[in-house]
Amino acid sequence: MSDNTELLAKLLAAVTTIQSDQKALASAVDAINGRVNALADVKELKDAARPKTPDGTKKQVVVPESPSNEERAPPSEVSQPAQKKNSRIILTTYPGQGGIDPVIMNWGERDPAKRGPVVVARGSQTVRRRNAIGAHGGSYSIYHALALAINELKADHKPDFTNTEPAATIGPFPQWSDPKKIVAMDPYGHLAPWLYKDYIDKEGLEIRPTIAVTKAHMRLPELERSVQSGRLQVDGKIVMNESGELAVTKFAVEPVWYLPGVAERFGIDEGALRRSLFENTGGSFPELITRPDIKVFLPPIGGLTVYCFGDPAKMSDPNVKLALRVHDECNGSDVFGSDICTCRPYLLFGIEEAVREAQNGGSGVVIYFRKEGRALGEVTKYLVYNARKRGVDRASEYFKRTENIAGVKDMRFQALMPDILHWLGITKIDRMLSMSNMKHDAIVEQGIPILERVPIPDEMIPDDSRVEIDAKIHAGYFTTGKVLSMEELQAVQGRAWEDVDH
């Protein structure tokens, strides 16, 4: 009997050891997997873009005569009949190359006709006239290429822009012709097909908008509760009904970079910028190196969306108050409600405060940038989450976790962010619904004063996001409350994966 007891004890000990080893192995495998794994008609559009003469009247916009087909005969390597594929691949072009004749581009010119359109497409009729590098669509340009490759999209498709004019009037403002104020978007991007119609009709050039303006209604469940609690009032104009449905004007913007201006904004040499963009995108854009005469680049990155509550004309009116939230994308929180950060709560607070300002006779604006995971991307963000949750998730280690993986704690680099404010004609911000020191400094450095900074209310901060918000406040984020010491940050801990109530 004692022999059996001893044998059972040994077997139990062996099973326990195996279970322990399996847990360790599973943990190791899990760790390895974590590492490996806008206007009513064309005339109004053109009128809006016309600069004024000294006597205050609008100048007539005249699109310059284009060279005849004979004068701009393309080189043999870029000449191809419509619908016929050419087996020869053009890797790059050079200034002065035969047949290469870029359309004028004088960035910062007040007269849009003298400024010229952004021409970037590589179609047979446009390639020789390009004055920009890259492609339309930002990060979606790859899907455009794929659609062409699988013959879902015809190479000779001509966009029909009938009834696509902006749904609200915007500008023009003096900032549009200041090459130091707008360097990351085309100030005439919403008017391009109408301002430069002659280029399209006479030369067959492909000229697309890089900005679109529309109107819509917005529904968010939290806003219904805001109405029910009395924080928002139904007025039938901005807050449409008891369900908290909002009327909003939306502006979608794709990035268009003026390379000399972008380089200057970051305090670097244009050549260094071009080289880094070329080398660190896998050599995708050789004309960054071979075409120093082309100063405009459409980068393959996400753009932004402006949500304007109330009359869009009030955004540029210095006599009324403006409430602004500048928000960087966070898919996990903004869309799916993750509580590891304050993104969705702060976004909702920003929308609510913007609506209240508009209802008080001012203007409310929320600007949403596609800069997921501090522009490090969602994969990097989730790797950071894993590193945080597999250890002790302390506020004192918050930024270190990101730096260990990405090498930097933030790549949003807010220097280009104020361009959209200049384009909207915003000259001052009464209430800035943001705690970010980087956003504040970037805006102020561009000559736009911020009169009040408004932090997120404490009651809107999820428990698991205290790690994030306390670490950011310690690092320089604005607060009206206490800034914790490094020792106090060590005591601020997030929820572990296992800390879930079932």
Characterise the protein shown here.
By secondary structure, the chain is α/β, with parallel strands linked by helices. The protein has 2 domains: 90-207 and 256-297, no CATH class; 211-255 and 298-500, Rossmann fold (3-Layer(aba) Sandwich), CATH 3.40.50. The protein is built from 18 helices and 9 strands. It has helices at 2-36, 42-49, 112-115, 141-149, 192-195, 197-203, 221-229, 259-266, 270-279, 287-290, 331-334, 343-359, 378-389, 398-406, 419-423, 437-445, 466-475, 486-490, and strands spanning 132-134, 211-218, 246-253, 257-258, 296-298, 304-309, 322-328, 363-369, 431-432. The strands form 2 sheets. Strands 2-3-6-8-7-9 form a 6-stranded mixed sheet, covered by helices on one side. A 3-stranded mixed sheet has the order 1-5-4. Helix 8 (259-266) crosses helix 9 (270-279) and helix 13 packs across helix 14. The longest helix has 35 residues, at 2-36. The two termini are 43 Å apart. The relative contact order is 0.09. Belongs to the GTP cyclohydrolase II family. One of its GO terms (biological process) is riboflavin biosynthetic process.
